[in-house]
Design brief:
- The chain has helices at about 5-15, 20-25, 30, 85-110, 110-130, 150-165, 175-195, 200-215, 220-230, 235-240, 250-270, 280-285, 315-325, 330-335, 345-350, 425-430, 490, and strands spanning about 70, 75-80, 365-370, 375, 385-390, 405-410, 410-415, 440, 455-460, 465-470, 495-505, 505-515, 520-530, 530, 540, 550-555, 560-565, 570-575, 580-590, 595-605, 605-615.
- The chain is an alpha+beta fold and about 625 residues long.
- The chain has a domain at about 365-615: Beta-galactosidase, Chain A, domain 5.
- The strands form 4 sheets. The chain has an 8-stranded antiparallel sheet, with no helix packed on it.
- Strand 3 and strand 4 (about 375) form a beta hairpin.
């Protein structure tokens, strides 16, 4: 076995409790308590299709209902594609996960039923896998065999090889060879064929799985390809991290998604010359997110982050990191996580060390990081004012340079909405767009990629000031990654947007200065997660923003104040000397079962100056 040492196995056996065994069993009931069901053809598609198209929430997966799938909001039933193929993708994931987790149960208990189930799953997939037809069609992703994209193929094979490694000594030589050749090698060869030449979390997952298979089968061809080839693991670490250690895609979710894959490989490679653990990259990746925590102990929900993925977790990553690096804040994060959840995961059994007495807390000071494109101002308990000023990060980025996020009294007041399942209509149709962020939107269309810059940052006795700027005078250099073009270059041509944030004890002063040489329709957009108290304006208009409704407007003559029922109440006052309008509207929150308030200032003047003043003590 390559995954765990004998010392780690003995430690896990000494730590395991009946409750942990019960949890692992319950988590795999759908597989353990039913006959093994493996697709005989490559019918599985994409788990992001398994979402209600109206409510943008995940459908209820039922092991005994492959053809009917219910929405948890209103009970609506969906049949046929794309839901049928997504149902099979979920089952493939459960089968693969069971190979690993039931393998661990067998390792801890020696109960034959776990070994038998893992062997049965692996043998059945090995029987069918070579004959699965290559299929795909997922936007900007390579194809799959058991699934519809190369990423999903890698995720399943990562669990297949973990389970195989654990039970391999108990297999007959015929079973070992059958699984090794028809499932693992066949899978690794397919992954090698379809790994793309790009920096991307997918390529990390794919390389990691190839490397894990190489480590288990003692095949240096796989290991060399996974680690040292162009676009392999070492290449990704050298080229896909911003100088401060943030994964280039800008999403904290995908930062951890990539890190999870790196660590999965390292658990196999740490005792070999293929390991990268002693290089500086991982420490930077592990430590950075802990400096970006918001007042509710979540991470900024920027770019592609499905609701819920902003919550710190990843005990599998930090148990191993605490075990290997002995860095205090990793143990403190674990101590915080285990205040509300039992320490009963697999990695805590095998790698668990005594935790520090102190738990991780939200940083008390400001975080100004031009090297990663984030500034977070924390000048009052429960408050955080963040500006995103990083470079464009590819297909998982959103079109929201200089986006503003505000927390007050521990809650998101001006939120980043994140996104929903990628197969749901609101993902591309709403959540990724410029107008669904607290930033500049021109002609109702999306910002092209651009590289913002910090002009000034000052911390004074009673005020923090940040000046950032972005322009669309020259095209930005795009990352070495597949790009989905959903922006409008002509609308933003030659526009310069400077945003000055000043934060005092009770106020946020947000100044917009916009050079608009071609007299485009400029919207300064705010989203406010609070109830608008004043009556809406008398003039109704139709906004060109999809899914945004109840829009009313009036001329902005100097200033306008709007009051909101938040906790505590706030007011937002708008100022401009331009020929401008103030607009209120409502659009989907996240999830889209609730609504959020929109506040816009609009002008087509060639030189525009807007000011928003948020009074937190209103």
């Amino acid at each position: 076995m390559k995954l765990f040492t004998q010392q780690e196995i003995q430690a896990a056996k000494s730590r395991v409790t009946p409750q942990i065994l019960q949890r692992l069993t319950e988590n795999n009931r759908d597989v353990l308590d039913n006959d093994t069901l493996v697709p005989t053809t490559g019918c599985a598609t994409w788990n992001h299709y398994f979402f209600c198209p109206e409510h943008s929430v995940r459908l209820i997966w039922d092991r005994h209902s492959p053809n009917k799938h219910r929405c948890p909001v209103d009970g609506a039933v969906f049949t046929g594609e794309p839901y049928y193929g997504a149902w099979w993708r979920w089952l493939n994931g459960l089968n693969a996960k069971a190979c690993y987790e039931l393998g661990v149960l067998w390792l801890l208990t020696d109960e034959p039923k776990y070994l038998d189930k893992v062997t049965d799953i692996l043998m059945q997939y090995a029987r069918h896998y070579p004959d699965y037809q290559e299929h795909g069609g997922i936007p900007y992703n390579g194809p799959g065999k058991a699934n519809a994209q190369t990423l999903c193929e890698a995720n399943c094979h990562a669990d297949f090889v973990r389970g195989f490694d654990i039970v391999s000594a108990a297999l007959t030589s015929e079973q070992y060879q059958y699984i090794a050749e028809r499932l693992l090698r066949c899978g690794a060869d397919f992954l090698m064929q379809h790994r793309s030449k790009q920096i991307h979390n997918h390529e990390v997952k794919i390389s990691s799985t190839i490397g894990m298979i190489g480590a288990v089968l003692d095949d240096e061809r796989y290991l060399a390809f996974a680690v040292n080839s162009d676009y392999g693991l070492l290449y990704q670490l050298r080229h896909a991290l911003l100088p401060g250690g943030l994964w280039f895609e800008g999403s904290l979710h995908y930062h951890y998604y990539a890190l999870q894959a790196f660590m999965a490989f390292e658990k196999f490679a740490r005792h070999t010359s293929w390991s990268l653990l002693d290089k500086p990259f991982y420490r930077d990746m592990l430590t950075l997110p802990l400096t970006l925590l918001m007042p509710d102990m979540t991470l900024p929900k920027v770019n592609d982050c499905v609701e819920g993925q902003q919550k710190p977790g990843h005990a599998d990553i930090y148990e191993f990191a605490w075990y290997y690096y002995d860095q205090e804040e990793y143990g403190q994060l674990l101590a915080w996580l285990y205040r509300s959840a039992p320490r009963d995961n697999i990695d805590s059994l095998f790698y668990g060390r005594k935790l520090p007495e102190n738990v991780l807390t939200v940083p008390s000071g400001n975080t100004h990081r031009p090297d990663i494109g984030f500034t977070i101002i924390r000048n009052q308990p429960g408050r955080a004012i963040a500006i995103k000023h990083g470079p464009y990060g590819g297909e998982h980025d959103h079109y929201d340079r200089l986006n503003l996020i505000v927390f007050n009294n521990g809650k998101a007041l001006f939120p980043d909405l994140g996104t929903t399942g990628y197969g749901a209509p609101l993902h591309y149709g709403y959540y990724k767009n410029s107008f669904s962020h607290n930033t500049l939107c021109v002609n109702g269309l999306n910002q092209p990629p651009a590289n913002p810059r910090v002009i000034d940052y000052q911390e004074m006795d009673n005020k923090i000031k940040l000046v950032t700027e972005v322009d669309w005078k020259t095209p930005a250099k795009l990352p070495d990654s597949k790009i989905r073009v959903e922006w409008d270059t002509e609308s933003y041509r030659d526009i310069v947007f400077r945003r000055t944030i000043e934060v005092t004890e009770h106020q946020l002063i947000d100044r917009w200065e916009i050079e608009n040489p071609h007299a485009q329709c400029i919207d300064a957009v705010y989203h406010i997660d609070a109830e608008l108290l004043a009556p809406r304006f008398s003039e109704e208009i139709a906004l060109c923003y999809p899914y945004v409704r109840q829009a009313t407007t009036k001329p902005l003559k100097g200033s306008c104040r709007l009051d909101y029922q938040a906790d505590p109440p706030i007011s937002v006052s708008c100022f401009s000397e331009n020929e401008a309008s103030v607009i209120t509207a409502r659009g989907p929150n996240n999830p889209s079962t609730s609504m959020i308030e929109y506040l816009l200032l609009r002008s087509d003047d060639r030189q525009i100056s807007f000011v928003f003043v948020t009074d937190f003590s209103a």
